[in-house]
Amino acid sequence: MHSLPRDLSLRLDAIDGPLPDPAPFRHAAVLAPLLVEATPGDGPRLLLIERAGNLRHHPGQLAFPGGKPDPDDPDLVATALREAWEEVALPPGRVTILGRLNPVPVPTGYVIIPFVGLVDGPFVPTHAEAEVTAVLTPAIRRVADPAVYRFAGEREWQGQRYELHEFQIHTPPLWGATARIVYDLLQRLDLAPARPPEAP
What we know:
Blueprint: H1 8-11, E1 26-35, E2 45-46, E3 48-51, E4 62-63, E5 66-67, H2 76-88, E6 95-100, E7 104-106, E8 110-119, E9 132-136, H3 140-143, E10 149-157, E11 160-167, H4 176-188
Parallel strand pairs: 1-8
Antiparallel strand pairs: 1-2, 1-5, 3-4, 3-9, 6-8, 7-8, 10-11
């Protein structure tokens, strides 16, 4: 994949579309930043963080920048942009929000709302060491490679069935809620690795 589809925003859910009531959970927001290289190379990249090992929730896991809303955040887009600024020093003014991906409930009591954002120009992240151990910028074509993908089955939780995906792009691998968000994005880019066929 050497460029993003011109109609990507149309493939995503509306930024301000209605959201289901998360009760008894609460909303959280993440930003899925897309980095586009000015010169030919591996094509567009994702920006992921490796969460610090001392954090209360999801220590050491790969994730997108994000978190729960602050009282001063006017909306969830503002939450996602603020968290990206705090965690990797991504200026909000350099991000164009293209749309939303499917909400993802997690056992910590939140429903994550992922926003896809296009980063304007070259960007060199600087991570907040208290929250972030490292920043990864894997090429989308690498994440979409079937050789690094594993379908880990389905589970049911709180009455909802969901799929488990794993991408062996790092140690630890990309899994959990963030892997579900990434797989959703790859599906909308027509790049999702094939899942094994269902048993008859």
